[in-house]
Amino acid sequence: MALPPLPATPRASIAIICFNYGRYLGECLDSCLAQTVPADEIVVVNDGSTDDTAEVLGTYAARHPQVRAIHQPNGGICAATRTALAACSGDVVLLLDADDTMAPQRIEKVLDALRRRVDGHLPGWVHNAMQRFSATQPHLGLAPYYPGGVAPEGWLAAQTLQAASCPVLALTSGLAFRREVLDAIGPLDSDRLMYQDLQLCTAAALLSPCVHVAEPLTRYRVHGASATKGSMVSAAQVHATRERAVRFDTWLRAQIERSRPGASVLWRPLDDQGGHLWLRFLERWLSGKGKDLGLLLRVLRHPDTRSGPRQYRLYYYGSLLLPRPLFVSYSQLIFGAGPLKKVLRKLLRRS
């Protein structure tokens, strides 16, 4: 889709989702209020929190007119994101999780990036680097990691279709979109299984070029569930991931058909995707049915695996060499956070 230039003084919205993160919400909102280019509105959806989120949010909304509080029953991250995006009125919408914070120049740098042409076109969305940190370790390295340190930008539709996966690996707090792109994407699938960042990045990559900001404009907090996000250490977790893949496949095909009838055939079937073959192998193995070595060899020889990130190749090959209990620990090391992971990142020359 072709986009016109941004207005001279575009309206900027920040969309924040909060579920039981009242202990972090004040720090998050303080960072939003300290921007060098002020946000026109900060929309915070309280997704049925049972902690002090409502009280913290009420205090900020009373003091700062740009903070808009929306309270709704708990519906999950995608339902809350859907509400937040619909409520934002800005020309540009920056996403932020309630446990993360923004660098003071984030809005300024995002707006500058959206004015920079890539592949001869104005980009419709931005992804930026994030500084990972925890309560005990202020510098856990940058995320996401891209081989060679070169992040994808420009028109990514062909690459996304070829790989059946968007090459942009940014999480929610590293994403920003022009309003036109969000309108073209339409409502997210709000099922609890789904990930909002996966839906947004993949759909946006098929619609508009993107631009990358290498400077870490977000501080991404590693704690609790986020410390092991991505690790799949039980058959139940893998089964849920497979269900998510099937649902996402259905949603994305509908998105493609809506924008270009007949084009969904360009999206590869799940059984022709290396990642889905891996999930089939892993679910069988972790449920105690043994290693299906034939299926594993299909995964290891698959073009998606050979061209994919080194981190995932190491992960897959670990299943070939390790017994199941050791592989579970290995998975937590590869995808988790902690001192050993920090050493591993240095060995792999990742900042």
From TrEMBL:
State the organism named in the record: Variovorax defluvii
- Write the protein's name: Glycosyltransferase 2-like domain-containing protein
Where would one find coiled-coil regions in this protein?
none
Entry superkingdom = Bacteria
* Chain ranges of the Glycosyltransferase 2-like domain: 13-140
Q: Which Gene3D superfamilies match?
A: Spore Coat Polysaccharide Biosynthesis Protein SpsA, Chain A (3.90.550.10)
